[in-house]
Design a protein that fits this description.
Number of domains: 2
Number of helices: 5
Structural class: mainly alpha
Number of strands: 0
Mean pLDDT: 76
Shape: flat
Radius of gyration: 20 Å
Largest sheet: none
Order of helices and strands: HHHHH
């Protein structure tokens, strides 16, 4: 097993990242596009993401407890991947809900005509 503790964060996985097409695509995006894709469009999605992350980390309120979370790189990576997947899921659900609402409006307009 390789010991990766002597690698700097900048060089960690650089060989993998350089050959990853998705990473190359994200790097080619403008900062504005990345920022836009990173923000949920509704307060409901933001609240659901926050709730999910709080549940993953533990629900102790920070105002009453001195909460310190310690983990290793692998577990942190899994947590990040899980949070990202939840975010994608919630965003897709939000888009589907908006599409269904739009279709209902179109159907209602068509039936009124």
């Amino acid at each position: 097993m390789n010991n990766l503790s002597n690698h700097s964060p900048e060089s960690f996985g650089s060989e993998v990242l350089s050959s990853n097409l998705l990473w190359q695509y994200v790097k080619s995006m403008s900062p504005e596009t990345v920022a836009q894709l990173s923000k949920p469009t509704s307060p409901e999605v933001l609240q659901a993401i926050e709730h999910t992350i709080i549940n993953m980390l533990g629900g102790l309120p920070s105002e009453n407890f001195n909460v310190l979370i310690t983990t290793n790189r692998d577990n942190l990576g899994r947590l990040l991947a899980s949070a990202m997947m939840n975010g994608y899921f919630l965003r897709n659900a939000e888009q589907r809900m908006e599409l269904e609402k739009s279709l209902q409006v179109v159907e209602a307009d068509a039936s009124d005509s």
